[in-house]
């Protein structure tokens, strides 16, 4: 097991991302958020965009999982080999890429993309939306697989909370591959549950680093007047 992946085992990875147009969408702000998460016990940080990756990598000691989102439909999480290489060059210790079986913008297959990144010496995390995606990722020799896109690609129903069924299926089928649970972990109890299923690590974003959503949850809990 690669030492960087070993560092994530049994721990919490915090996703520090802000959406376009939001007040916190600034590399320095995301770096400060990442530093606060590290102090709080995060074993890794997931972040988006080259400027954010570079800013965060310069401020934290834990591994950084980098992505580059482009667009908002189809394959938009690190959609091409070029995007992935740029993330690695910006400082990402692990580059997460869309691992679905959809057509990639540069015409490369998922397997070709992973092989090229491995030739560069880059660790790859597969953002999967289904078990078939996970199978493809494992066949390609991906270093880490995750449930990131479960419920967002049309192959699986979007669950209220983590997709425990897919998580367990992936863990049972691929005992030698680290499986990370990501997506809709909103409470400490849910985090405990996914780790009990056997996740290598868990990524939590919105519930920790997106105050607009968190404020909305509390607003919605107010008694109706």
From TrEMBL:
The keyword Mitochondrion does not apply. Coiled coil: none annotated. Gene3D superfamilies: Aldolase class I (3.20.20.70). The keyword Isomerase applies. SUPFAM superfamilies: Ribulose-phoshate binding barrel (SSF51366). Keywords: Carbohydrate metabolism, Isomerase. GO terms for biological process: carbohydrate metabolic process; N-acetylmannosamine catabolic process; N-acetylneuraminate catabolic process. Pathway: Amino-sugar metabolism; N-acetylneuraminate degradation; D-fructose 6-phosphate from N-acetylneuraminate: step 3/5. CDD domains: NanE. It is an enzyme of class 5 (isomerase). It comes from the Bacteria. HAMAP family: ManNAc6P_epimer (MF_01235). PANTHER family: N-ACETYLMANNOSAMINE-6-PHOSPHATE 2-EPIMERASE-RELATED. Belongs to the NanE family. Converts N-acetylmannosamine-6-phosphate (ManNAc-6-P) to N-acetylglucosamine-6-phosphate (GlcNAc-6-P). This is Putative N-acetylmannosamine-6-phosphate 2-epimerase.
